[in-house]
Amino acid sequence: MLTKAIGQSHAKAILMGEHSVVYGEPAIAIPLLNINMIVSIIIRHDHQQIIKSRYYNGSLSDLAGAYEGVRQLIVFLLEQFNATDLGFELTFNSQIPQERGMGSSAATSIAVIRAFYALFEEPLDRKTLLKMANIEESITHGSPSGIDTATSSSEDPIFFIKNKEVTPFKIDVPGYLVISDTGIMGQTGLAVSAVRRLFDEEPSKTRRLISDLGEAATSAKTALQTGDLVALGQLMTKAHAHLRTLGVSHPHLETLVKTAIEKNALGAKLTGSGIGGSIIALAKDLTDAQRIADALSAVGAQEYWISPLASQMNTEHLN
């Protein structure tokens, strides 16, 4: 066993398939490698188990509330390594905003698992990683789709169908994504309930919207692989209109989407659960991306990132 170790992960953006993925339709998620989460662990000899983060500083045993999933994951890992009395200091350094649809909790679980496996010098395969990450995600989100953990642990985009397919795929396409935060926490539970309620009230209409979102995700994968940015942008904007009809948009999201389109975005949509959170906008080049980002800031966006589609390693974080 080492005396210290780190684990890393990153944010994600849902490109296509929000909400429809819950009903068996495909979704696409994009990893944002430079919006990262780093978890470091250092052994203590006094047997204290200390957590340090932006939101909580104290003992592992007192970690609760929104972080209960993280606490249970750490306890599970300690039990697995027969180290329940191990003293340590676990520090979280995250660039990922919480409740913005960017996979903060999934990234946390991935980084924690990687840190502990590195500490104990044990090999970690992807199947085991995703299975363990589901411990935290199930507690935090109830019935997670799995797309967040799949993408927060991957360097490639993910084509995802719940309980059927998790397929990374390569893309080589020009263009940039602008990810923009409204500053309003997303409301996952409320958004999921809104879609379910619409299903109860207008089943035929809702089923058609869900199906159309699934078809758009499949078409978006083709557009990414063939480099058709115009088609991809049109699919994104169409998907946002469907999501708005499903009742998961928000006035601030609408303002950002409208502004992005007015500033020559090829397409724009909410990303994540909605009713707050973030949008993504597609730009043909870096000049347009910066123009769009500046305009979004001017109308109230709290933070933004510019990310090249073809090489997420070059993500730029800007305020």
Short description:
It is an enzyme of class 2 (transferase). The chain is an alpha+beta fold. It has helices at residues 68-80, 104-119, 126-141, 147-152, 188-201, 203-226, 229-245, 251-262, 286-298, and strands at 4-16, 27-44, 49-52, 57-59, 87-94, 158-161, 165-168, 176-181, 267-271, 278-283, 303-308, 316-318.
Characteristics:
alpha+beta; 2 domains; Ribosomal Protein S5, domain 2; Alpha-Beta Plaits
Structure write-up:
The protein is an alpha+beta fold and 319 residues long. It has 2 domains: 4-168, Ribosomal Protein S5, domain 2; 176-317, 2-Layer Sandwich (Alpha-Beta Plaits). Helices cover 41% and strands 25% of the residues. It has helices at 68-80, 104-119, 126-141, 147-152, 188-201, 203-226, 229-245, 251-262, 286-298; strands at residues 4-16, 27-44, 49-52, 57-59, 87-94, 158-161, 165-168, 176-181, 267-271, 278-283, 303-308, 316-318. The strands form 2 sheets. Strands 1, 2, 3, 4, 5, 6 and 7 form a 7-stranded mixed sheet that branches. Strands 9-10-8-11-12 form a 5-stranded antiparallel sheet. The longest helix is centred in the C-terminal third of the chain and has 24 residues, at 203-226. Its EC number is 2.7.1.6. InterPro entries: GHMP_kinase_C_dom (IPR013750), GHMP_kinase_C_sf (IPR036554), GHMP_kinase_N_dom (IPR006204), Mev_gal_kin (IPR006205), Ribosomal_Su5_D2-typ_SF (IPR020568), Ribsml_uS5_D2-typ_fold_subgr (IPR014721). Pathway: Isoprenoid biosynthesis; isopentenyl diphosphate biosynthesis via mevalonate pathway; isopentenyl diphosphate from (R)-mevalonate: step 1/3. It comes from Periweissella ghanensis.
